[in-house]
């Protein structure tokens, strides 16, 4: 039986520990190595993990390990998990999210059947009470690579990740995007599944809902863009229509997301910087064939249509007016 290493970064997550152990213990696939990377927590996360490990049933076949380190952020904690892992496959989970009981078994089954280096699945966006706000189910086409660009909702062959030296960026924004684009650069053995077993829980206190809500040095999307442009495969990616659309989408959505906490003039300047970078690196980007009402095949209307509308406004010189109004309405 193949061993799966489950990597879970922990930061001040003591209230989630019991739930994580319940979900792991309920998995239908038991040959697991679960790595808790305590990333400099200031609460009782570590002691909670130790107590649960001592109370776990050895006969279940699940191995639990606690690794403690100084705070390095989500990317650094995941990198430490990769370094410590000994399984045949890697699977990432965030401390405040949830997985269904057959999640690991279903992804591993696809990976083994197709000899995949990466298997990508969809996800559900849910409230803490379990209400499903969004159900994202993938179809079997290449755009799925960019519909789920997070490390969760996937399983990776560890030998592939180690051989290609694929790691997360040590930054708070976009470290997961970099990891996955770099992964896609090194393999064509990518599979997709319509199965949905990962639940991304809405958390108002998460980094994405606090730090990322305002433009700052640590949340500047251009740090990610610069790193992507330095990849050995960057020239090829910059000519790929899907990647170009993904970069445009990422830039626009981050500008909109940061509108809540950023003064409007600063926001407009940031918008200008993002589009200058995109258009300098990818000439002709604003005429991308995928900027349509429906977007790439399989994309959700909630993603494709805002991009289409924003670009129509931009072509009419009205995106600045829109951003001012959008900022006021947040």
In whole angstroms, the N-to-C terminal distance is 51 Å
How do the strands line up in the largest sheet? 3-2-1-4-9-6-10
Report the radius of gyration as a whole number of Å.
20 Å
Largest pleated sheet = 7 strands, mixed
Silhouette: globular
Q: What structural class is derived from the secondary structure elements?
A: alpha/beta
List segments where confidence is low: pLDDT < 50 over at least 5 consecutive residues. none
The DSSP helix count reads 13
What is the name of the CATH architecture of the largest domain?
Answer: Alpha-Beta Complex
Q: SSE order, as H and E?
A: EHEHEHEEHEEEHEHHEEHHHHHH
What fold name stands as the CATH topology of the largest domain? Spore Coat Polysaccharide Biosynthesis Protein SpsA, Chain A
Mean pLDDT comes to 93
CATH superfamily of the largest domain: Spore Coat Polysaccharide Biosynthesis Protein SpsA, Chain A
Question: What is the CATH level 1 assignment of the largest domain?
Answer: Alpha Beta
**Beta-sheet strand percentage?**
15-25%
State the total count of DSSP E strands.
Answer: 11
- Give the helix proportion (percent range): 40-55%
């Amino acid at each position: 039986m193949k061993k799966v290493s489950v990597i879970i970064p922990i930061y001040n997550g003591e209230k989630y520990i019991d739930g994580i152990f319940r979900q792991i213990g309920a998995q239908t696939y038991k040959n697991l190595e679960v790595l808790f990377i305590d990333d400099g927590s200031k609460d009782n996360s570590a002691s909670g993990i130790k107590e649960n490990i001592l109370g776990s049933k050895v006969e279940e076949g699940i191995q639990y390990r606690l690794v403690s380190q100084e705070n390095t952020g989500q990317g650094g904690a995941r990198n430490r998990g990769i370094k410590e892992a000994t399984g045949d496959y890697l699977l990432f989970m965030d401390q405040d999210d949830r997985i269904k009981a057959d999640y690991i078994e279903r992804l591993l089954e696809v990976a083994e059947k197709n000899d995949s280096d990466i298997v990508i699945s969809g996800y559900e966006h849910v409230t803490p009470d379990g209400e499903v706000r969004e159900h994202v189910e993938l179809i079997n086409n290449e755009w799925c690579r960019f519909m789920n660009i997070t490390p969760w909702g996937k399983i990776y062959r560890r030998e592939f990740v180690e051989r290609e030296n694929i790691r997360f960026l040590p930054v708070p924004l976009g470290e997961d995007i970099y990891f996955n684009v770099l992964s896609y650069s090194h393999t064509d053995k990518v599979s997709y599944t319509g199965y949905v077993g990962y639940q991304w829980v809405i958390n108002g206190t998460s980094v994405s809902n606090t730090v990322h809500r305002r433009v700052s040095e640590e949340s500047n999307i251009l740090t990610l863009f610069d790193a992507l442009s330095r990849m050995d495969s960057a020239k090829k990616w910059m000519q790929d229509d899907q990647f170009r659309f993904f970069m445009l989408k990422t830039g626009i959505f981050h500008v909109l997301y940061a509108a809540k906490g950023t003064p409007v003039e600063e926001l407009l300047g940031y918008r200008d910087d993002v589009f200058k970078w995109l258009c300098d690196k990818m000439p002709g980007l604003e005429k991308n064939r995928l900027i349509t009402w429906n977007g790439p095949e399989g994309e959700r209307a909630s993603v494709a249509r805002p991009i289409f509308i924003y670009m129509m406004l931009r072509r009419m010189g009205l995106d600045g007016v829109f951003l001012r109004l959008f900022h006021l309405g947040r």
